[in-house]
Amino acid sequence: MGVVTALVRSTFLVNAVYAESSRAYGITPQQGQLLCVLMPQPYGMSELGEMLGLSKSSLTGLVDRTVQRGLVRREPDPRDGRAVRVGLTEDGDRLAHQFCDETCRRLEKLPSALHTNERDRLAALLARVVLDNKVPEVFTDPDD
Question: Which of 37, 90, 106, 116 has the least C-beta neighbours within 10 A?
């Protein structure tokens, strides 16, 4: 299998894990990703759009639906009175941690057939691809 095929199929695999975890918590995969991204701090809408790769209208709809669920809130941006930031509510923070922990447990199982040195090599290679392509820091390793 070539690198392109492996990357594309890996994307499907990771997306399937997000979908399974999301169903278990009664949210959409996109809401799960939003919650995980917001765990460290609130972000402005433009920052969120860039991190999640969503257009303004798609992000607005996602945030609206997640606000209605009581998981996130809009708050004034202290640096720009015209802008808003999106942050987790108390319920959202609790769900975000549960969802992210469960998703990590599920993802950790994917390379379970690999030996420790193979897993370390895979992690190093994927980290390099991510860093070389300046992927926004939307998920952090709990061990870092």
Answer: 116
